[in-house]
Design a protein that fits this description.
Layout: H1 5-32, H2 37-44, E1 47-52, E2 55-60, H3 61-87, H4 93-117, H5 135-144, H6 151-175, H7 182-200, H8 210-223, H9 229-237, H10 245-265, H11 270-285, H12 290-314, H13 329-357, H14 369-379, H15 383-393, H16 397-424, H17 439-446
Antiparallel strand pairs: 1-2
């Protein structure tokens, strides 16, 4: 099934990352409720100063993880969105219709359920929390089901979760950012212009783009817009078309090898041999698109470093200190749990079914509604993005702790439901025999 090959490495990293996230979250929760709980709080409140000249930011370790390191997580999200829009499940309306419908339902219904529990009161601001899906956790759960879930379901989940991320990014930018300072926007615009100039001039080393990224980050922070949005903006700017491409690489590499061979036979010095070797290195670098290279470099660091660190810093809820007598505490908890556990699968199934029935899209032949139900249940695993939005939505530490507890509980319950659903429900339709189809037929049916 050739259409799945581009996703295999991505899905494998996400699955392993999901397991690592689970371990980090469990460790943080145990640490925060152990006799050493004070050391947990002390660690994340340790201040770290970063500055250049007279400009200095003195913030906690928790701030640098949530605001700076997570920018690289959002940069990866931006690259994933750009890739999907160019070559993947979002590249045309026909391919994107089903995951778009599923994502819209998977955002609106959970938000509606949360609002139903929190119509009035301080908890109402958290309506964006249950709208999120954690790609790593969700893919990890489906991976545990093995052949009981068709690979196409995983691809649909990936596309659905990416669209969900787009929604979450818009929510953060529009509803959880505080005002706009013009001078900050000008600084961010300067970083944006620098990135555009780098791209226009053909400056290729990816590390160079850290400079405009940090300038945009500082400008957005100054402007009052959540600075992690800088990562998404830069990710969407990175080209998805290779400079050389595979055929260009073969030609350039062959020319460079011929040049290298001629210089060796002519007895030229080692220094003179560097030019064709540099040409081979350039051809290798430019054989794939910058967005693909960036994703390949960033993905392991984000999946195995930044996201587990985020989980460790944010999942440590002090259970013994929770006070459900605080106004809105119980509605917030119930809204988050019900929104993720019930709202996600209901929204995914309802909107997908309506779209299929109306003729806007077609259910792939290798996927059944049982598969969509399992996907919807896995979509209720909100963890990383849900906690991130909760941090922005709730200035009250009591409500924030309750919201985090709701996210953790919903993650556990939704994951268990997805696993049980995959095992208990009849699965013949989830893993249809498609080996007799050609690769083109599989691609056509999966992306119909």
């Amino acid at each position: 099934m050739t259409f799945l090959r581009p996703f295999e490495g991505f899905l494998q990293i996400e699955a392993a990352s999901g397991i690592l996230l689970l371990i980090a979250a469990a460790f943080a929760l145990a640490w925060a409720n152990s006799p050493w709980a004070a050391s947990y709080d002390h660690l994340w409140h340790t201040t770290i100063a970063i500055g250049i000249g007279e400009w200095t930011m003195d913030k906690s370790l928790h701030f640098w993880i949530n605001e700076l390191l997570m920018t690289f997580f959002f940069l990866l999200v931006g690259l994933e969105i750009k890739r999907e829009m160019a070559h993947g499940a979002l590249s045309d309306l026909r391919r994107a219709a089903l995951p778009v419908a599923a994502a819209i339902g998977g955002m609106l219904v959970p938000a509606g359920i949360f609002v139903a529990f929190n119509r009035a009161g301080p908890g109402a601001v958290g309506w964006g929390v249950p709208m999120a899906t954690d790609i790593a956790f969700a893919v990890g759960v489906l991976t545990l089901l093995g052949r009981r879930v068709h690979p196409t379901v995983r691809v649909l989940l990936l596309a659905f979760a990416i669209i969900d991320d787009i929604g979450a990014i818009l929510i953060i930018a529009l509803f959880y950012s505080s005002g706009f300072a013009v001078d900050g926007l000008m600084i961010a615009g300067g970083g944006l212009l620098m990135a555009w100039l780098f791209l226009t001039l053909g400056i290729r080393p990816g590390a160079v783009f850290t400079i405009p990224l940090l300038i945009m980050w500082a400008g957005l922070y100054r402007a009052g817009i959540h600075p992690t949005i800088a990562g998404v903006v830069l990710g969407l700017m990175i080209p998805v078309r290779a400079w050389y491409g595979s055929h260009g690489f073969l030609r350039a590499a062959q020319d460079a090898l011929d040049d290298f061979r001629a210089r060796v036979e002519a007895g030229q010095s080692h220094h003179e041999l560097l030019e064709p070797l540099d040409a081979i290195a350039e051809a290798r670098r430019e054989a794939v698109a910058p967005a693909v290279r960036g994703e390949a470099v960033l993905h392991p660091w984000v999946a195995y470093g930044i996201m587990p660190l985020f989980a460790l810093a944010n999942a440590g809820v002090h259970l013994q200190g929770l006070d459900f007598q605080v106004p809105s505490a119980t509605p917030v908890l119930l809204g988050v749990v019900a929104g993720l556990v019930l709202g996600k699968p209901i929204g995914v199934l309802l909107f997908s079914w309506l779209s299929v029935r109306s003729g806007l899209c077609v259910l792939p032949r290798s996927v059944t509604w049982r598969g969509m139900l399992v996907m919807g249940a896995a979509g209720g695993i909100g963890f990383t993005m849900a906690i991130f939005i909760a941090e922005l939505a709730f200035p009250d530490p009591e409500l924030l702790a309750v919201a985090k507890l709701g996210v953790l509980a919903a993650t556990a319950v939704a994951g268990a439901i997805a696993l049980l659903g995959g095992w208990i429900l009849p699965h013949a339709g989830l893993m249809d025999e498609v080996e007799d189809l050609t690769a083109d037929a599989v691609e056509e049916s999966a992306l119909a």
